[in-house]
Amino acid sequence: MSAILLPQGTRPQRRDLEAGSGARRPNVTPADPQHTRDPGASLITLSAFLAFALSVVLWFTDSRQEAVFTGLWVPSILALSGFYAALRRHSK
Fold this sequence. Notes:
Largest sheet: none
Number of strands: 0
Distance between the termini: 37 Å
Strand content: under 5%
Number of helices: 4
Mean pLDDT: 79
């Protein structure tokens, strides 16, 4: 990285820095679709967490068979999430 030597007491202007050969900042806006949350993915993740929480509650309330059944939903829901992410990536 090269240093720019300036006379003491002077500061480069913003337009001088942008027009120079230095690296430019990317033009990213908050509304960029690549940086927004996907409500579908958030809903799938939330449902996996709720299935896990329900399984734990059922386990400690002595409904062991129902707890195991509900606990098996979690990997299935997460697999659905992976499939959904692959579909979203393929459609872009």
